[in-house]
Write a structure and sequence with these properties.
single chain; mainly alpha; Four Helix Bundle (Hemerythrin (Met), subunit A); globular
Length: about 120
């Protein structure tokens, strides 16, 4: 006996490589992501500061890019705007800008604000 023929999953948007992914996280998953973001971001900011002190442009860009992705994931909007700008400046200048310490201070303040929400 043959199995019935149907469209199956191969025709659905879920399995098309060009289809945008969309899913909803549970409240518990959102809390877990926020907690992980806070834990890793404090360490990333510390490592960013070390890279700035060591004048390591590649490492600075790596840390900023990592923080940017994490902020995007959890919706840390004020940090996201700061990190987008910071990353753009780093990529365009290919060197560490003079205002990095001020940016680092703002990022730490924004992380504290995110933590208090």
């Amino acid at each position: 006996m043959k199995a019935p023929r149907g469209r199956g999953l191969e025709g659905s948007a879920q399995h098309r490589p060009d289809a945008p992914l969309s899913f909803e996280l549970s409240a518990e998953d959102k809390r877990t992501l926020a907690r992980l973001f806070l834990e890793t971001s404090h360490e990333d900011l510390r490592l960013l500061e070390c890279a700035l002190l060591g004048a390591e442009p590649g490492e600075v860009l790596h840390r900023v890019h990592r923080l940017h992705g994490a902020a995007l994931t959890v919706g840390a909007t004020p940090m996201l705007a700061e990190l987008e700008c910071f990353e753009k400046v780093l990529r365009e200048a290919a060197q560490i800008p003079v205002d990095c310490q001020e940016r680092l201070i703002r990022l730490r303040q924004q992380l504290v604000q995110y933590q208090q929400r």
